[in-house]
Structures are given as C-alpha cells and as structure tokens.
User: Fold this.
Amino acid sequence: MELETFPNPGVTFVEMTSDELTALGPGNAQPDLYVAHIEYEPTTLCLESKSLKFYLGRFRNQEVFCEALAVEIRDDVAAALELEAAAVTVTLTQKSRGGITITATA
Assistant:
C-alpha cells in the first residue's frame, strides 16, 4: 500500500499515532506489537491517515528489528511528503515482551 498525500490546507505541525502496528521479530517470527508516533512539519503536502493505516498493516508479515522499522517508516513518510528525512520523526514503542520494552526514534 502506498502512502497518499493531500495539499496542505495551512497547518504547521502534524502528529499521528497508531497502536495498530505489528511486525515479526527476526529469527523467531513472533509478532511484535508497536505504538507508532509520527511527527512532521508539512510544507506543501499532508499525509492521508487511512493510507497510513493500510501502509502500517503491510508490516504484519515482515521480519524486522524495531530500529530498522522506525527508519524505514520515517524514510517512506518523508519521501511521500517530499521532505528531507530529518524533517520527519518516527518513534516506535514496542510493547513489552519478555519483560523488555524497546523505543526507537528515527
């Protein structure tokens, strides 16, 4: 699923949060559950939320480390918005598994 955008109606800051992100842990193929928090300062484009929901759903069967996933999402969102990667912040908080919680920011 591709990320969709729409013309910025005049906002200067956008925050989006989803607790519906799931990916598989590399090596063990066990599901990891995440809260994804995305922040950006739009110039000409804004991210359409339903496309983000479908985009995040594509990771459901992908084996990936939390840290790599944060970078991949950041880079894809930045590309869709035609922004530099540094203009987008993605924070993933992996829900506790085995007593360990991971937070990765890109």
